[in-house]
Amino acid sequence: MPIDYDPTRWAEHTAYTDPGRHAELLQAVPPDLDQLSAVARNLIIHYRASAMELPEETKPDINARWLEAILDLDQQRHPGDLAAERDPLSRVQGCCRDHSLFAAAVLRQHDQPARIRYGFAGYFAPGFHVDHVVVERWLPDEHRWLRFDPEVEEPWESMPTPRDIPPGTGQPYETAAEAWTAYRNGSIDPQTYGVGTDVPIRGPWFLQCAVLIDAAFRAGTELLLWDGWGAMSDPDGPTEDQVEIADQLSELIMKADAGDVAAERELITRMQSDPTVAVPETVLMISPWGEPPQPTDLTRSAVIGS
């Protein structure tokens, strides 16, 4: 990173990580990566990957997009200390995005810059890259972003360093921009990038959508992974215009990740105000439970009454 790079904007909560009434509970979680990752896994159970029969009545948990709303659900079931062990069946149903959102929130609560990223993990299934959200924490002494996965408890053969994942194309974790660029260069099979080996959601159109979501994340809009809006491809795409959008955003993201401040400013400006790509006030939430798509107001007060 350039010596004058300033990550302090990422030390502030976004609307998504703001704990609201639960600030003291969040403050009590130490910013140690192992500890905060353990608390994230204690609060949130993956709705699909847990290999457990989870309660029907808690299925709607997965749409609790705001951290305050996630903690509301947890505290209704387990009042008090976030580190106190929860019965897995009573944890908040969520996914990697929610584990990472919580982890980033803890770090921000301690005034430490942190951001979440959307991309693809090659360490869950041999030969396949699963869409996945991880966290990046700023290390001031090393002047770099450290990438970590709060869902992975211990090192695996396929992921030996879950608390310091090396960045870059071809690494165990690739950002959506890196994966898209590799696809456009013809160096990957896009059919090996998707939701999972058992889910037919994959390929170029899905990579294009992933770029949009990570671009939104990089601009501080930490959406649900099943939020959609007009700039995104559908399974019959992407169109030429959508390809161009993904090309442009991927270039900006990769430059910004390398420390190009001008590229980061342009990326944020586009994601906030360019009508061709900006996240609108209302998105279409396409629930993985197969429910009809639902227009959803992204105004935080519309959901949690804050």
Automatic annotation (TrEMBL):
<dbReference type="InterPro" id="IPR002931">
    <property type="entry name" value="Transglutaminase-like"/>
</dbReference>
<protein>
    <submittedName>
        <fullName>Transglutaminase domain-containing protein</fullName>
    </submittedName>
</protein>
<feature type="domain" description="Transglutaminase-like">
    <location>
        <begin position="72"/>
        <end position="150"/>
    </location>
</feature>
<dbReference type="Pfam" id="PF01841">
    <property type="entry name" value="Transglut_core"/>
</dbReference>
<dbReference type="InterPro" id="IPR038765">
    <property type="entry name" value="Papain-like_cys_pep_sf"/>
</dbReference>
